[in-house]
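Lab notebook, design round three. We kept the backbone fixed and only want residue identities now. Task for the bench partner: fill in a sequence for the structure below.
Input structure tokens:
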């Protein structure tokens, strides 16, 4: 049950959104995004309005302005309570005012209050933010312009003022109101740009120079903005370490963050070849599955879209089949309450896997709201199993209202586990999904659109099963007279193929920046190999051009987030940390939890009396019509239970594999191959046992027909080959049984 989140009039009618214009400036691994929304008040009186919108958790809002008719007002950053007082005073005086503030419970939700928009008047609001671009499994960099802000479930008894005011709202683009959307992206990179892809129609990429390090691409006209707009940027040599040095502001105070130069390092530590081939056979794997009502929504708005819960069930089945023998595991389902399959984690065997497979297939989105805090508390209260590192896999559509409480809990238990999180469907909270992985030294994945959840989840399982680099130290070698102050939090863990972005302030004076170099080393330890890994990058202090203070603002955002976390965990000294956050936020002009953007336009106007009104909009999308109510979820499940889609033969094959890695010779396996059991056994060599023959045929089928899904079944094949070798033991293997599963 969602309500409109555009501008709303006193008559409970939306102020029509006429256009959205987005400009993206991508520089390597980071980007600056400018969005302008054009509204018109068609009422006969002045209105006060509210606009709630999502933003990536790793972003920092750095500019806001509003244009009424021909006059533009640029907002400034002030301490939040002071900004709210100024806004209220302006309304009571009949002045036009704009207040833009971050949610108190989740850093990926912002609220814009627009006061006193005159009748017949147009209003253009522009906000600019800087953000890091996330790395995907295929090494592309992803930019996402979200269309949906899912309702955030707040557990009973919690009081989250700002976030509760954002409950059950959708972004303006998702309302059924005529408007236009334009998006243009300007790309630049130290390495050549290979290509740009999107699930939305794009105009051909226009390269702006001969070496293809600069390019331009635009969204085709007529896009309805009924789904997230995603761009995937592919650079050549994307794993090559890079550094961008950005000069400080000449008018800023020397020695301050904005007055000094700042550097951003992009590092991909090189792993020994032995690391990528190692697979651990130990570990405690805890799978935490969101079963709230919203998980009955479809993955996307396109044709043949699966329900989120169904996709999650299939993925969980794949994970179970891919676990190594001898490990431990457990499964939790949560909604308004939670339940676990076992009182504590059990050893992985054929018996325990058989016990859970049928229960997994029957899992439904029937457990009410989204309360993730309590199951996590129960998991962390369980004693760890010696020699079996705990790995927690969390699947959720990210609709919670107590994000900061959850992140604090994960952070306080970071020494006892690693957390791998998965945001399912459009609108999942980036603050929750990314935050849990960062605090738990794991990895985050977002599954949107027509993405196959299985391939992304299996990448995280590879990270969990392979050795990681830990005990990481950063070592800097700087010229005489200079020093380095780190602005980003320490890097805790790195997996093979994972990027590390490091921000640092360069203090001191030197004569000639162009002739000086700094060397940065990232040194870590791989415990299973008993060896160190070193990544070295030397770079010039010559500042880059036309960066627009993007690096400074992202560095400030990184430091602000660290201070906010310290403040949340600190007993004494909270006010001092709060003051430091406000000072840095105002100095850098970026958003924080303790500041807000305030703009006041001096002029005539009539203030709106009474509370802010919102209007329900029926029929937004299938996802928006479902609340986290167990009754509604059960009804929805019952109505859709008889809608059958063709079975996926790969999932059928996966479901038939035994815990040991083998397949049994049975008619259901033959059906996957499109054969009868007689046809399958007819050519079986006399000296070969049926189970071995079935397993060989399954491997041949995977290699012959499902190589495009290799990432999904790789661990199943490793287990199968291992089982074949152990079954034959001292017997020589026929050549047909020798497989390359790499």
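Proposed sequence:
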């Amino acid at each position: 049950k969602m309500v409109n989140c555009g501008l709303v009039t006193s008559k409970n009618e939306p102020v029509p959104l006429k256009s959205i214009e987005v400009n993206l400036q991508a520089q390597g691994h980071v980007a600056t995004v400018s969005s302008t929304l054009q509204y018109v008040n068609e009422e006969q009186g002045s209105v006060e309005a509210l606009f709630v919108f999502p933003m990536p958790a790793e972003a920092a809002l750095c500019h806001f302005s509003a244009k009424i008719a021909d006059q533009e007002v640029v907002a400034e950053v002030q301490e939040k309570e002071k900004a709210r007082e100024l806004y209220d005073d302006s309304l009571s005086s009949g002045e036009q005012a704009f207040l833009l503030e971050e949610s108190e419970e989740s850093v990926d939700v912002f609220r814009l209050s627009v006061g006193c928009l005159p009748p017949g008047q147009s209003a253009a609001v522009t906000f600019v933010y800087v953000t890091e671009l996330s790395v995907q499994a295929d090494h592309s960099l992803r930019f996402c312009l979200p269309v949906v802000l899912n309702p955030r479930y707040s557990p009973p008894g919690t009081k989250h003022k700002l976030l509760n005011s954002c409950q059950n709202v959708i972004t303006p683009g998702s309302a059924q109101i005529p408007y236009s959307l334009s998006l243009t992206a300007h790309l630049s990179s130290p390495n050549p740009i290979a290509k740009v892809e999107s699930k939305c129609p794009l105009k051909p990429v226009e390269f702006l120079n001969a070496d293809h390090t600069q390019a331009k691409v635009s969204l085709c006209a007529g896009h309805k903005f009924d789904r997230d707009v995603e761009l995937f940027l592919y650079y050549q040599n994307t794993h090559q370490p890079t550094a961008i040095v950005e000069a400080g502001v000449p008018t800023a105070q020397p020695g301050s963050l904005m007055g000094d130069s700042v550097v951003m390092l992009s590092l991909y530590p090189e792993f020994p070849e032995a690391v990528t081939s190692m697979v651990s056979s130990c570990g405690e794997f805890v799978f935490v599955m969101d079963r709230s009502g919203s998980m009955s929504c479809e993955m996307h708005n396109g044709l043949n879209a699966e329900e989120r819960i169904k996709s999650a069930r299939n993925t969980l089945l794949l994970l179970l089949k891919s676990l190594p023998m001898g490990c431990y595991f457990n499964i939790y389902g949560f909604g308004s309450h939670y339940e676990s399959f076992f009182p504590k984690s059990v050893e992985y065997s054929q018996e325990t896997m058989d016990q859970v497979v049928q229960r997994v297939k029957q899992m439904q989105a029937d457990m009410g709201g989204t309360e993730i805090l309590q199951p996590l508390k129960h998991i962390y209260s369980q004693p760890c199993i010696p020699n079996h590192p705990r790995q927690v896999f969390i699947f959720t559509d990210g609709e919670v209202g107590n994000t900061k409480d959850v992140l604090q809990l994960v952070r306080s238990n970071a020494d006892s586990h690693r957390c791998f999180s998965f945001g399912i469907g459009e609108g999942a909270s980036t603050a929750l999904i990314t935050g849990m992985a960062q605090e738990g030294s794991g990895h985050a994945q977002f599954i949107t659109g027509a993405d196959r959840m299985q391939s992304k989840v299996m990448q995280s399982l590879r990270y969990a099963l392979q050795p990681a680099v830990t005990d990481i130290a950063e070592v800097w070698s700087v010229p005489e007279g200079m020093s380095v102050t780190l602005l980003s939090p320490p890097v805790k863990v790195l997996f093979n193929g994972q990027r590390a972005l490091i921000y640092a302030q360069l203090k001191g004076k030197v004569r000639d920046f162009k002739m000086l170099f700094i060397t940065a080393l990232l040194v870590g330890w791989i415990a299973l190999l008993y060896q160190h890994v070193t990544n070295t990058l030397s770079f010039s202090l010559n500042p880059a051009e036309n960066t627009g203070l993007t690096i400074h603002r992202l560095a400030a955002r990184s430091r602000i987030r660290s201070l906010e976390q310290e403040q949340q965990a600190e007993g004494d000294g909270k006010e001092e940390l709060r003051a430091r956050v406000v000072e840095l936020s105002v100095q850098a002009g970026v958003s924080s939890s303790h500041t807000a953007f305030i703009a006041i336009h001096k002029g005539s106007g009539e203030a709106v009396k009474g509370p802010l009104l919102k209007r329900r909009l029926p029929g937004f999308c299938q996802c928006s019509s479902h609340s986290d109510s167990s009754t509604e979820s059960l009804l929805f499940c019952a109505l859709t239970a008889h809608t059958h889609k063709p079975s996926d033969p790969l999932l059928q094959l996966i479901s038939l594999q035994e815990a040991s890695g083998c397949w049994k010779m049975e008619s259901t396996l033959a059906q996957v191959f499109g054969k009868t059991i007689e046809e399958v056994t007819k050519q079986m060599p006399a000296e070969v046992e049926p189970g071995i023959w079935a397993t060989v045929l399954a491997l041949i089928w995977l290699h012959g027909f499902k190589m495009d899904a290799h990432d999904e079944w790789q661990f199943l094949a490793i287990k199968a080959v291992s089982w074949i070798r152990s079954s034959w033991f001292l017997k020589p293997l026929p050549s047909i049984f020798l497989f390359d599963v790499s």
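Keep this in mind before ordering anything: The mean pLDDT is 79.
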